[in-house]
Amino acid sequence: MEENMNNEMDMGIVKISDEVVGVIAGLATTEIKGIVGMSVGAVGGITQILTGKKNLSKGVKVTVGENSATIDLSVVIEYGVRIPEVAIKVQENVKRAVESMTGLTVSAVNIHVQNVLIPKSEDNNIEQIEE
Q: CA end-to-end span of the chain, whole Å?
């Protein structure tokens, strides 16, 4: 049985691009309640609200080594949620998703909260507060 595994490995190599890991991380981020968007720029950049089909790797920076990945996420948080709790859930979900789908070890998931989205008035308009 070991011989078959070695032959399969000798067929070639599989490389996973940073962008693929970024899309997986972006999708895993959007699954968490309290995350309403991704911030493209590090300092007051354009904020992308997660409605409809968007580029899910925006706001995600990935550094992939041979067997590990470090992921930086710039997120927009919903007003009123506990930011540390949301951040921990995002870290856990992103780590689980990337490791299970790619086989890479995620060495770090860094969360950068760039904006808070708050209701502007009772008619559900929203206002962004930027750092």
A: 57
Pair 110, 88: CB distance under 8 Å: no
The sign of the dihedral angle between the CA atoms of 63, 64, 67, 70 is positive
Residues 6+ apart with CB under 8 A from 27: 56, 97
- For the chain, 131 residues long, the average pLDDT of each consecutive 10-residue run is 48 85 93 89 47 65 89 94 97 97 95 87 54 51
> Hey, CA dihedral for 105, 34, 26, 72, is it positive or negative?
negative
Strand partners, 71: 62, 109
